[in-house]
Amino acid sequence: MKEKIEELKKREELARLGGGQKQIDRQHERGKLTARERIDLLLDPGSFMELEMFVTHQSTKFGLDKQKFPGDGVVTGSGKVGGRKVYVYAQDFTVMGGSLGKAHSSKICHVMEMAIKTGAPIIGLIDSGGARIQEGLGFYGPIFFRNTLASGIVPQFCLISVPARAAPSILRPCAISSSW
Question: Model pTM?
Answer without folding.
Answer: 0.79
